[in-house]
Structure formats: C-alpha cells, structure tokens
Design brief:
Layout lengths: L19 H5 L1 H8 L23 H4 L27 E2 L14 H4 L30 E6 L5 E4 H7 L3 E8 L4 E11 H8 L7 E6 L7 H5 L8 E5 H4 L5 E6 L2 E2 L9 E3 L12 E7 L6 H5 L23 E5 L5 E5 L7 H4 L10
Parallel strand pairs: 1-4, 2-11, 5-12
Antiparallel strand pairs: 2-3, 4-5, 5-8, 6-7, 6-11, 8-9, 8-10, 12-13
Bound molecules: ligand MTE.
The site of ligand MTE has 16 residues, from loops.
Amino acid sequence: MSNVILRPDWYLPDSAATDPSLYLNRRQVLRTLGLGTIGLATLGAGCGNANGTSVGADSAAAPRSSPRPDGPLDTIPANAPRDGYPAMRVTEGFPEPGRPITERLTASSYNNFYEFRNQGDLKDLWHLTADYEPFPWTIEVRGEVEQPMTLDVADLITEMDLEERVYRFRCVEAWSMTIPWTGFPLRKLIEKCAPNSNARFVRFVSVNRPEQMPGLANSPWYPWPYFEALRMDEAMNDLALVATGMYGEPLPKQNGSPLRLALPWKYGYKGPKAFVLLEFTREQPPTFWNELQPAEYSFLSNVNPTVPHPRWSQASERFLLSDTEGERVPTLMFNGYAEQVGALYPDEPQG
Ligand code: MTE
C-alpha cells in the first residue's frame, strides 16, 4: 500500500467529517431524546428484478422525515466477536472521502439485502432479521487452490488485524453514503486461501437460509443464493476490504453480518453480504445481477459517471448524510478512487 495521501478536488478537511464519538453515541442520544415511534416511509427501489418490474433510483433517495427507534442498531448478533472493535482508523493509501460520515442509523435502516426484503418498505428490512443467526459461521474455500479448506469467521476476525477505513459507498440506484467500515484487506484472506496459478477470478456465494431469511420466499424468481465475482487483480487491490463491522462495532445483520465485501470503486451490488463460499476459477463466473439483466449490470460495474445505466443516469448521485438530508452531487470517476484502480481498466471510458 502506498503512503501517499491524495487530496483530490473534492477534498474536505477532516474537521468537516462527523466525529466518530458522535456516531458511536447516537443510540444513546436517540434514547435520551425518546424517539420511540416507527416511521415507515415507503421508499421502494432495487437493482431491478427478474420479472421485469423495477423502481426508480431517485425515489430510493427520497429523504425520510419520521423519527425511528434505535431498532436498526440493536441487530448486531449477541454472539458476534467483539475483540478488536473499535479498530484503529487507517487513512494512508487511499483518499479521504471528502464528505461527512453518514449517520449510523441511516446506514443501518436504509438497506439492500434482498434475502430479507418484504413487499412493503423495501429498504426498511432490519426488523425482518430477527430469526437470522449468523454465528457460528464458516466459509468454504475451493476451486483453483493448493488445498480446499474451511475457515471459521470468528477465528478470522481474531487472527486478522482489524482496521477501520472510511469509504465512499455508491449504489447503482444513485444514492450514496460515507461508511466507516471495520475489517481487513481481501488480499489477506486470499493469501490465506492459497490460490494456485490457474486462478484468474474469485467467486463469492452468499448464504441461503430460507427459514431465517424471509426475502428468499418472497422473491422466488431470483436465482438464489446471491453470487458475485471479481477478477483476481481487482480482489488483490489494496482498496478491497472484507468488512466485519461498521461504525466501530460488528456488522448489524441487515448490513451483512458476519462479513461482506466493501469495494468502494464499484456499485454496491458487487459487494456480496454474508458469503459462505469462495471459489477460485479459471473462467469468468456468472454474477447475480449481470445474469438477470446483462444490459443493465456489467460484470465489472465500476462507478463511472460517463457510463449511464439504461434507466438511471449515473452522472450524479444523492448523498445521504441522514434520513432527512440527501444532497445531489456529481458522481466521481471510480467513485473518487481512480488513482487507486484506474490502471486496472484501460478499456473503460474514463472521461
Ligand atoms: N448481498 C446479498 N447477499 N444480497 C443483496 O441483496 N445487495 C447488494 C449488496 N450486497 C445484496 C448484497 C446491493 S444492491 C447493495 S447497494 C449493497 O449490498 C447494500 O449494502 P447496505 O444495505 O449495507 O447499504
């Protein structure tokens, strides 16, 4: 990882970002304020579904106005390992986000996790995670590796030096957030898996637990379980993070407990949540949204303002600081990480 801290033109000083002590105490603040009623604004949206209906991006970014309880912050599994949280924040090797951190409650109540989606408010799915028990959790490693293996996630969390990274996060639905993730480089996980020289791609498959995930039955037309993949050079890039936590604590269930990928230069759907399989392959594997709607979701799916989505312009995005604030701002090439990843994509229009 290089030690250069880039100061792009959208840079804002750290003082403009939310003080971590504020978001860490937000739950307390909400309790103090007695915000106890649920406001279920119907926001809709999604990456687009297989039976042809889809809902627009901008409705997804519509701000909520009602106060909500701290339920979304109470969904961290009770048996999630706590050692290593909060982790030391790392700032070297990638640009600062240049905008404040999204309020924690917003990041944990405005979600895409189709395995938990209901027919109502598609984003507000945290309350459907009650039956989901992620720990204990193992990941199967297979394919082009020296030796297939099974990894225990609690062991991994203990073994890896957890770090915090504040990344910009961009959904193809044209909303964005700034998230302080806790985790470790994907590269470290891959090195542990010891892929052989045939490995050109790595494939991820999410968990499939119909008895714990109501969205699976609600959306039978999707080819469950969720699957994604990266080229090996992408997966080994310093930016690629395995996130096991956010906002200084383990991941809430709706954010992908016990682990997910955070790939800040790609649209959010390239980051599988709750994966149970890593498979190294010679050939490019199929990916969930690309298989469903190839004209709308490419394999690479890098954030690129010059490549419009057939239904949604990607030239700008709505930055969600909180439930009530959603400022429209220009989209940055590779979401602001062109310096780190641009060289990986010589064939991609880079404006
Ligand atoms: N992973 C799984 N297994 N299932 C999903 O539905 N949704 C993706 C991605 N990973 C998804 C997933 C999409 S479309 C986005 S935008 C992000 O998760 C949303 O992450 P968040 O809910 O933490 O904001």
